[in-house]
Amino acid sequence: MDRQISGGAEGFGSDPDPVAGAEAGGWVSEPAIRAIAELLGMPFIRVLEVATFYTMFQLEPVGRTALIQVCGTTPCMLRGANELMATCREKIGPKDHLSADGRFTWQEVECLGACANAPMAQINDYYFEDLTPEILAQIIDDFAAGKSPKAGSYVGRTSSEPEGGATTLTDPKLYDGSAARPIKKLPNSEPAKETA
Question: Model's pTM, two decimal places?
Answer without folding.
Answer: 0.71
